[in-house]
């Protein structure tokens, strides 16, 4: 699924109306990333693999559990291609969730899930 900029901005306007978070000056990049790579990003395996050795050593080729992840350093929303099997309503809820993180970090109000 592709999310045009107009849809992302509309989602952020809605999020702002509910949360009071300001709308950031920029949109995040959205990319599809395999679950294995997302898991490594989530646990910082490329930064400090010793922090979570069992997770970082695991060469599991797929991970269907992590379907969305926001990288606040690069302003990128990573989506697991596996999520395309879900209904579009579920897919949109994942995008909204990750956009909330984008808006939180832009407003300097970080929050972990």
Describe this structure in words.
The chain has helices spanning 5-19, 35-42, 53-57, 88-106, and strands at 29-32, 68-71, 76-79. It has 113 residues and is of the alpha+beta class. A three-stranded mixed β-sheet has the order 1-3-2, with helices on both faces. The chain is globular, with a radius of gyration of 15 Å.
Largest sheet: 3 strands, mixed
Broad shape: globular
Q: How many β-strands, per DSSP?
A: 3
The helicity comes to 40-55%
Return the average pLDDT rounded to an integer. Answer: 88
- Determine the strand fraction and express it as a percent band: 5-15%
Order of helices and strands: HEHHEEH
Number of continuous helical runs: 4
Provide the structure class: alpha+beta
The side-by-side strand order for the widest beta sheet comes to: 1-3-2
Q: Unreliable segments (pLDDT under 50, ≥5 consecutive)?
A: none
Rg over C-alpha atoms, rounded to the nearest angstrom: 15 Å
Keywords:
three-stranded mixed β-sheet; single chain; 11% strand; 42% helix; 113 residues; alpha+beta; globular; 3 strands
Summarize the entry for a quick read:
The protein has 113 residues and is α+β, with helices and mostly antiparallel strands. The protein contains 4 helices and 3 strands.
SSE layout:
Blueprint: H1 5-19, E1 29-32, H2 35-42, H3 53-57, E2 68-71, E3 76-79, H4 88-106
Parallel strand pairs: 1-3
Antiparallel strand pairs: 2-3
